[in-house]
Amino acid sequence: MPELAVDHRFSLTHGGPFFRLLRRVRLVAPKGNVRWFWLVPITWLPIGISAASRFVAGERLAPVMRDASVHARLLVALPLILIAEKLLEERVERSMYVMRQERLTDEAHLDSILHGVERLRDSRVVEAIFAILCVIRSQTLLWGGNGPLGFVQGLEQVRGISFAGLWYVGFCLPLLNFLMLRWLWQWLMWIVVLVRFARLPLEMNGMHPDGAAGLKFLSMPTSALATFLAGMTSIASATWSMKILHGQATLQSFIPMFVVLIVAAALLAFGPLMLFSAHVCRARHRDLTLFHAFSHEYVQQFKRSWLSGKPRQEDVLGLSDIQSLNDLGGSYDRTEKTSMFPFGVRTLATLWLGALIPVLPVVLSAMPLSEVIEHLGKILLGGLPT
Q1: Contact between 143 and 155 (Cβ < 8 Å)
Q2: What residues contact residue 321 under an 8 Å CB cut-off, 6+ apart?
Q3: CA–CA dist 58, 38 (Å, integer)
Q4: Dihedral pair phi/psi, residue 208, rounded to 5°
Q5: Can you give the residue range of the structural domain that contains 74?
Q6: Which candidate, 16, 69, 296, 364, has a CA 20 to 30 Å from the CA of 130?
Q7: Is the four-CA dihedral 26, 169, 255, 258 of positive or negative sign?
Q8: pTM for the full model?
Q9: How many domains does the chain have?
Q10: Is residue 300 one of the residues assigned to a domain?
């Protein structure tokens, strides 16, 4: 990506108390990316070392070490969340750069929106609320005894937990939950930018080659959401596989939950972009009307010049008028086929792949590949009704 001018820079993720804390402890690279390849060992290695020491001592592995969802959270979801944050930063910065370069709206209005979002990004209250919720959740897991002697029962429960379990519940899980909430907050801020931007008067071009009147760049951050979704479904996949393995559930029982997850992700990704459909529709109809009038005049002149029946001496091979007529038709077709939505099939497929790929191991473990192919073949090719 080319260097952006200083006054064009907008950061959706490089701010807030937690980011400053990570920078202070050198877990942020000079370019502003969180060093996930250091954060992952910090969280998982104590659990692995504890498990290895218990194994050497001839003791049974702690339950936390035998839980696939623990490793999915720390080794898969944690880096994916931080990679998704990096992608969100890059894609949003690029989107704002394109928005300014194409002068789609008044820069003063755009600056006002971005400055307001930066204040939300730096809010101490929001991150404090997230931290408190995550700590309460972990402490509930640690001390959650029932009945009037709940605290005493919880104390006995804590005494029976291994170091790996205490480290996971007391530090790793709150950290991961905080990162999840923080990332969703960052996406919510991007939604705020889109909603406020959609309310502004926009200078759009229905003939733009992106097929969305020049607004398809707004769907670029969706790849970050797909990466985040892959992290979430990796946790779900590991949890579901454990339940299926122990006979506590079947694959079919998780289908409604998975559908809800995909629908919610689609609403988060494409719901705000739908607000621009009215802008695209107006630009398309306006430019089609202008194009129709211009095309009519051009075709009339072409007919009078070349199809009037009078003999012409010029060589028509390679004639620029004919080539221009062909180009005119292509430009008109492009304008007429302008999509009503500033996103394409590829963007939709990227989001779906982010959700589907992590759950494939669960599907293949619960259903043989031949059976999966057979079911897909019947769905796609059809068959006799029963």
Answers
A1: yes
A2: 302, 305, 306
A3: 30
A4: -60, 135
A5: 6-220+271-282
A6: 69
A7: negative
A8: 0.82
A9: 1
A10: no
